[in-house]
Amino acid sequence: MQLTELLFQKVKDLPGQGQLALKAGYVAVVSRSPSLRAALIAPICPAPDDQKRLAEPPGPTRVGVGVLGGDGTPYRLLRELGGPRQLLKFNTATRKYAALTDDQLEIDSFLRVECGMPTLDAYTHFFVLEVNELPSLRAKSAAAVSEAYVDVAQVKALKEELVLTQTFEGMQDRLFKIAQRLQELNKATARLLEAETDAELSEHELGRSPWSKEQIADLTARAGRAKEELRREEALADIAKKKLRPANTETPVVEKFASSPWFGGGLAAGVLLDVVAFFVRRPLVALFALLPYLGALIAVLRWIETDEAAKQSVSAERELNEREHSVLKNFDVEYAPLKAALKAASVEQPADLVALFREREAVAQRRDQSRARLMELQQDPEIAQVSVELTQLEEEKQKLDTEVLRMGFTRSVGEIEADLKRAMGMSDARSKSVAVPEAEVPKQVLDRAAELLTVHPDELFQQIGPRLTAYLGALTDQRVTTAKRDEKGLLVLGAADGRSGPYTSLPPPLRDLVYSALRLALVERVAAVKKLPLVIDDAFGTLEPGKRALVAKMLKGISTQAQVIHRVVEPPPPGTADLVLQT
């Protein structure tokens, strides 16, 4: 952010109407008018005592500043004391400034968003160095402070804004709680829906199974016995082998022994010999008849053997056939249901069917768990009221959203309260500086700088350590060479000879120089980050000329980081300032 100009009309201690063109860098404004600082700051940070500081009867008193936005666009911020501020934007086509808004909240939002401004109190307390900035002038200046001017209209408007903002924040809090509750109810609904879906899916998956629980147990047992198929195949192979053996041997032909020539011839020859022996009466001849009878007997015995072999072969074949039929029948009875189950399940192996049954058992367990969970959720009284409460909360949220949109943009309560205190004269920066003990003034300045940078004060003090040491040595002529903080955060200073003591132990002139070194070191560090204009109201005017010239050189260095506007009574050394103005 950079200030490009100062516009004023009928301002106390300034010419009737005028304009100061400002630029980046170190700008020195030579003027004895104490109202110059207020004229610069009043359009940006309105204060309740601006009327007293600036108004020049009969008025009206107007002030304004030119501002470069973050994107380099020129703006003007105008203010007529007793009235609202107005923001104008430069139109490149017409080469003129056109009114942008006169809404105070929108102007504050512009300063924060486009220009990177902190809160008004933070800016005026750190980036504005009052004429009574040095410790030796604080008590004298505080004694001269009169009662602050109270702008009744502004106080009333701020109170109304405070009530409106508190209502708005109450709505926002309620919306947040509603959103949290809706999230909880949606989670509960999601749990119920998940349990119902899980139960339905389990039921549907189980419903596709064509087997009952008992059938599954029977098929599982049959599948466990499916290994007996191998033994069945072995038995059938053995039977086939046994049936094949008789087929490979010639089956004896069973003929009647009466048709055998041995039987008929032997019997005829024996009878003939017996008849001859009878007629010749020779018994010895009858003895030779036994030989033919033996041939007939051999024929009978051979027939008996062949007949028995044929009977055994038929009997063995019948037994094998019966055994084969029994094996096939028993296996078909045992394996048929399992085979049908394999076909129905579209699997080939009994092990696959058993795995399928196990999966179904897991689904059944999940179904039972889902039913129990669903029943538990349905019996939960909070779940039972979800639909009713959800509808009510949605309606309330819709009404609150509509009301919030209608109310529009609001500031934070803390910011409005700070403005209200300032408008009622309860937040004057000079009064605050008096209330702070002198020993804690450096700590307060360090804390404010740390808050602007959002770092811890100890960390910031370490960061500025080298620069602070350099500033201390230069301003105090090496009478103070070191600075540190004690356990309470108070400043402890050290001399070149090793002596040390607290900040308050220094004589007033030396204390002013130490405070100036600390203030400039902090301003340099914060300005490097925030890039906001530094306004100095002759804060170092009581220093001796040599020190003032040295401070001017230090401000010249700081101006490389951010714009410095310094009101001085006497011009700085030639070549120090980038621009010197006279009023």
Please name the defining characteristics of this protein.
single chain; 583 residues; alpha/beta; five-stranded parallel β-sheet; 60% helix; 12% strand
Describe the protein in words.
This protein is of the alpha/beta class and 583 residues long. It is 60% helix and 12% strand. It has helices spanning 35-41, 50-54, 104-113, 120-126, 135-143, 152-207, 213-224, 228-248, 261-280, 283-288, 290-345, 350-378, 381-384, 386-407, 413-423, 429-435, 441-453, 457-463, 465-475, 508-530, 545-558, and strands at 2-9, 17-21, 26-30, 62-68, 74-80, 85-91, 96-101, 128-129, 482-485, 491-494, 500-502, 534-537, 564-568, 579-582. The strands form three sheets. A six-stranded antiparallel β-sheet has the order 2-1-4-5-6-7. Helix 6 (152-207) packs antiparallel against helix 12 and helix 20 packs parallel to helix 21 (545-558). The longest helix is centred in the first third of the chain and has 56 residues, at 152-207. Mean pLDDT is 78; it is low at 142-149 and 427-434.
What's the topology here?
Elements: E1 2-9, E2 17-21, E3 26-30, H1 35-41, H2 50-54, E4 62-68, E5 74-80, E6 85-91, E7 96-101, H3 104-113, H4 120-126, E8 128-129, H5 135-143, H6 152-207, H7 213-224, H8 228-248, H9 261-280, H10 283-288, H11 290-345, H12 350-378, H13 381-384, H14 386-407, H15 413-423, H16 429-435, H17 441-453, H18 457-463, H19 465-475, E9 482-485, E10 491-494, E11 500-502, H20 508-530, E12 534-537, H21 545-558, E13 564-568, E14 579-582
Parallel strand pairs: 3-13, 3-14, 8-12, 12-13
Antiparallel strand pairs: 1-2, 1-4, 4-5, 5-6, 6-7, 9-10, 10-11
